[in-house]
Structure formats: C-alpha cells, structure tokens
UniProtKB/TrEMBL annotation:
Protein name according to UniProt: Type IX secretion system protein PorQ
Signal peptide: 1-19
Keywords: Signal
Length: 354
C-alpha cells in the first residue's frame, strides 16, 4: 500500500509544477499522437478503458495487465504528405516477480525533404524522423489496484537539428469488477532533454496530467468513458510559455471562468461490445473540435472519431478513423497477437528460470 500512496502523491504533486508549454515551442509533440487505433477511436486520449489490448499501456502503464502476457502489437498508419507511422509493443509477465513488463517503439518517418540555406539554395536532402523507445512495468496491489511506470528515450532527427530526451510516465488504476467500473490517473512525459536542437534554447516536454473513468452498464454491453486532460492548467486553448516569457506577455490568461474552457479538458467516448467478439467505438475530443474548427464553414465531424475491432483468440484486428476537419481524416490499422496461442509460451519467469 505504501507504494500506491507514494505514486498517488507523486501524481498529485505534478499539478504544482511550473507552467508547461501548450503548443508553440514544446518539443516532441509526436508523443501526443495516439499510437493505438482503439485510443484514436476513443477520442485520442483514454486512460481507463477496459480492454485486453496491450497498446493501451502506451498511454498509461497502469493498464499493462497480466492477461497481456506474450501479446505483440503492431499498428500501421499512413498519414498525409507521405508521413508513415509504425508502433510495435511486446509484453511479458514474470511469475516470480509478480510483475508485468513491456517494451515498445513508436516511429515516425516524414519522407525526404530538401535542405536549403538561408537564401533558399538547395544543399541536398534529408529524412526527418522521430521515435520513442519505451520500457514499462506494472504491478497489482490487493485485488483492485494497479500501478505502473514507463521510462522513455526520445529522439528527433531533422537533418542538421537533432535532439534527445528522457521521460517517464506514472499511472495508478482502480478497478471494481463487481460494478463494471474503472478509474485511473496518470502523469505523462515528465523529464528533460539530453541534447537540445539548439544548445542555447531549452525546450519543454509535452507534460500532461490525465484522469479517466470508464463504466459499463450492468444490463447492456455498452461502456462509457470520460477522460480529463491537462488538469494542471485551466486555459488550454493555446499558451506558449517560452514565447510569453521572452516577450513579456502574461502566461496566466485564464482569469475568467467559462464553460468553454472547462469542457475543452474533456474527451467523451462510448464502446459497444457485441458477443465478446466485436467492438464498435465512437469518441469526441472537445479541444480538437474547438482548435480545428473553420469559422467560415460548418464544423462537421471535426473532433469525432470512429472505430471497430474484431477479436479472435489468436488475433485482434482494430481499425480507427479520426476526423480533423470536414474532409480531412486519417485511418489507423492495428494487429494484436498473443504469441502464447501460437507457441505455447509460459510466463517469462518460468521460461528463463527466474
């Protein structure tokens, strides 16, 4: 219980951290990208949904579960302008340590770009890339609590500009199976740079404090989720702390309470479970809807996301479609394979004699 209390204290204390950049000069913003099709379908942020899907642990290490032992996840995304995204994860449970482990990588390839000097003269080409390597572990306390930690190495390569950083995520999860209820709190991207793009200009990581609750109806196969993000700051529409500090502007712009500012923290989602084999998911991200709406036209499906999953014993196949504007959306495809169904693997501790 002492470990759980310490983790809760750590998460709560992050709310007192100095102001973080929202937009603008925050580095490594690719970390905000929902690597999992299921998370994308749930609105882009979700830390409490109940699912035997290892890729959920990318967003919240407390969601790494013993049932995910030997799961391998591969997610593929073809984004606009030739941008490619790959996400891979693998999980093991150590029986002797009673601990779940996982490792993964999220990789972005932005294609080939021309490199020019200040006058526009072409000096060649380069291939910008971003990636994060992630190691995580989780444990259970009693029958209802779980806590997890994720350590991440981040790297960006934009031709002559390169940077790296170390970050950590910490999460605590509570599950009440009798009432079909699950809640979680997680602090993500706590850390700092090892190497800066420009040695004279430090940059912040996209820190976020998130809380989520998921509830399934007792007499219907429907689950609802509510996720709140950026709880360490009230006004989150756009705030570049580095720019404001350098130019003498005030950072605390949220002097007046408005319901718009309140609801921009929320992501709503629902999931219908059909026969234990099919998932149908829909989500709505309020902040995305507000930031990307076009004032000269209708908002349409901006901020909405949809998804579906087909779950078999040896394969889970998931698909998501996320809308950024009326005619602008991207698709994600993900595969989950429990390798012990193919190779008869035992627990990791049993396999290597720990």
């Amino acid at each position: 219980m002492r470990a759980v209390v310490c983790l809760i204290f750590l998460l709560c204390s992050t709310a007192q951290l100095p102001a973080q950049t929202l937009g603008g000069q925050s580095a490594y913003n690719f970390l905000k990208f929902p690597a999992s099709p299921q998370v994308s379908a749930l609105g882009g942020i979700n830390v409490s949904n109940v699912s035997n899907d290892l890729s959920l642990a990318f967003s919240n290490p407390a969601q790494l579960d013993s049932a995910m032992h030997t799961q391998m996840v591969a997610n593929f995304n073809a984004l606009y302008a030739g941008v490619k995204n790959l996400h891979w994860m693998m999980a093991f449970r150590n029986a002797k340590l009673q601990t779940n482990f996982a490792a993964g990588i999220l990789y972005f390839d932005y294609g080939t770009t021309m490199q020019t000097d200040a006058s526009g003269n072409i000096e060649g080409t380069y291939r910008p890339r971003d990636f994060v390597v992630q190691l995580m572990a989780s444990r259970e306390y009693l029958n209802r609590w779980k806590y997890g930690v994720s350590l991440k190495f981040l790297a960006s390569n934009y031709g002559p500009y390169r940077s790296s950083a170390i970050a950590a995520d910490v999460g605590v999860l509570y599950r009440d199976t009798a009432n079909f209820l699950q809640t979680s709190v997680v602090a993500v991207n706590m850390g700092g740079q090892l190497k800066r793009y420009n040695p004279a200009e430090p940059e912040e990581l996209p820190f976020d404090l998130q809380v989520g609750i998921s509830k399934r109806l007792a007499k219907a196969p429907i689950r609802f989720s509510l996720t709140a993000h950026h709880l360490h700051r009230f006004n989150i529409m756009y705030n570049d702390t580095l720019f404001n500090n350098e130019n003498g502007f005030e950072n605390a712009s949220a002097k007046k309470f408005t319901f718009d500012k309140l609801f921009q923290h929320f992501v709503f989602s629902t999931q219908i479970l059909i026969g234990g084999r099919v998932e149908v998911t829909a989500g709505f991200n309020v902040l995305r809807n507000q930031e990307l709406k076009v004032t000269t036209g209708g908002n349409g499906l901006t901020g909405f996301s949809l998804g579906a999953g087909v779950l078999f014993s040896k394969l889970q196949l998931r698909y998501a479609r996320t809308y950024f504007q009326n005619n602008v959306a991207y698709n994600q495809l993900g595969l989950t394979m429990p390798l012990n169904q193919y190779f008869g693997l035992g627990s990791w501790g049993e396999k290597v004699g720990w």
